[in-house]
Amino acid sequence: MSTSFSRLWAYRGFIVSSVKREFQLRYQNSILGASWTILNPLAMMLVYTLIFSQVMQARLPGADTPYAYSIFLISGLLPWGLLTDIVSRGPTLFLDQANLLKKIHFPKIALLVIAVANSLINFGIIFGLFLLFLLLSGQFPGWIILWVLPILLLQICFAASLCLILAILNVFFRDVAPLTNIALQFGFWLTPILYAQSMVPAQYQQYLALNPLSHIFESYHAIFLAHEAPNWGALLAPVILCGILIVIATRLFNKHAAEMVDEL
User: pTM of the full predicted structure?
Assistant: First the structure.
């Protein structure tokens, strides 16, 4: 493990320049450039606030602020966007860089670091706007917001390990990419992001609880909406699953890293 980190550190210049290049390429042919990184989420927040808080007067059980449903939606959609951005990069993580992998010798795991870093940059910009919205609306949770850090770290480890597994599998089995898209669509609707678990009929809540991602997103809702610390006991399942995914990803990578180049 220490050897992998030392090799990544040795190639830190390559990683930083790759992250910078991908960010620039995303907006190089756009008139407004990187401004879209701010304009898109800002428009989303305004629409949700206007429609759900003012027009529809949507309310969550036990919430009495006019911005409750907007905060509920955004605090779920933003982390889900980060998760899907990382995971959806998985199937093409190595395939898109086939020529680079064949011509240049560098640690292949660097591609995962680059993908996660780019996703985090986009998320960081949008999340900063969300925090500003909370401050201006008087709904900032205070020091409780620090609990976001361990939840976010858990989610990143979960998404990154899954991304690496999908990247390796898709080198050998090209059906992984469409299956990933389908799984993400099902995952979105089976995770309490647009709805609270309490809104689901009681007889189905036990099945919803089987989804480990449910506990992660309920933690975000607890922090931003109820201004409460997460239910740490409920997070045991996603922590265990994340550990399993890390072990699987590590073993797959160590076993197949050398032969992947021949399959690309």
Answer: 0.89
